[in-house]
Amino acid sequence: QTGGTNNWALYSAGGQSAHAGNVRIGSTVAPTVALDVTGQVKASGKLTAGSGSSVFGNLFGRAAVSVSTSAVTIKASTQVYGGLYIVVGVTGVLFFSDVVHAMRGQGDSQITVISAHNGGGAAARTYTFSGENLQLAMASGTYNVSVTGIGPDES
Q1: Which of 23, 51, 68, 107 is most buried, with most CB under 10 Å away?
Q2: How far is CA 3 from the centre of its chain?
Q3: Is the distance from CB of 90 to CB of 65 less than 8 angstroms?
């Protein structure tokens, strides 16, 4: 297709497609694996790795959410087996970065802040569970908080 807004080198209006060889996206260097991507990847759905892969469990991230003195869910539906979370918050020149392990159990839920770094005098914070949701509340102020983590497969 040429002459339009999208000048596609390869375009299909639908249906199934298959390719028997290796494919590289983002570079003209020959691919060395089935799908070889140079650059960033954006997926709107779940990214799944098969058995024997070098990525296990569930990798996830959450875009910034506003957290103040009332508890806000920062990770919904935590699994019983637990997860490891990197929680980063910022407000103006104040910021914090925490490494948190959270595990829900039958009557034995635990949240452990493994490491906490405060920049510029960031406010104290409290992690709690509300049902199966990991929540955060700040002692004062309102912070934009992002979460990245890894945990067991949630499928």
Answers
A1: 68
A2: 39
A3: no
